[in-house]
Amino acid sequence: MSGAATALILVGLFLAGGVYSFVKQQMPRSLIVLLSIGAAMCLVAGVLRLEVWN
């Protein structure tokens, strides 16, 4: 399951980069909040799926 955890972490980091970009472009705050929540969920799910934490 290490591949799934890695994929989730990478997607979370990609979304976090999107949050940074959207803040720089002054996009609507609701869009930034939704993207932040998605990034946090992917990162948490990826860390929880790591076999180190199980």
Please explain how this structure is put together.
This protein has 54 residues and is mainly α. 81% of the residues lie in helices and 0% in strands. The chain contains 2 helices and no strands. The chain has helices at residues 2-24, 29-49. Helix 1 runs antiparallel to helix 2 (29-49). It is elongated and about 40 Å long. The model has no long low-confidence stretch (mean pLDDT 86).
Write the SSE topology.
Elements: H1 2-24, H2 29-49
Helix pairs in contact: 1-2
For the sheet with most strands, the description reads: none
Instruction: Describe the oligomeric state of these chains in a short phrase.
Output: single chain
In angstroms, what separates the terminal alpha carbons?
11 Å
Output the helix-strand order: HH
Query: What value does the Rg take, in angstroms?
Result: 13 Å
- What's the tally of helices? 2
Q: Provide the helix percentage.
A: over 70%
**What is the strand content?**
under 5%
> What's the shape?
elongated
Strand segment tally: 0
Mean pLDDT across all amino acids = 86
* SS class: mainly alpha
Q: Spans with pLDDT under 50 lasting ≥5 residues?
A: none
Compact overview of the structure:
The chain has 54 residues and is mostly helical. It is built from two helices and no strands.
Characteristics:
about 55 residues; mainly alpha; 2 helices; single chain
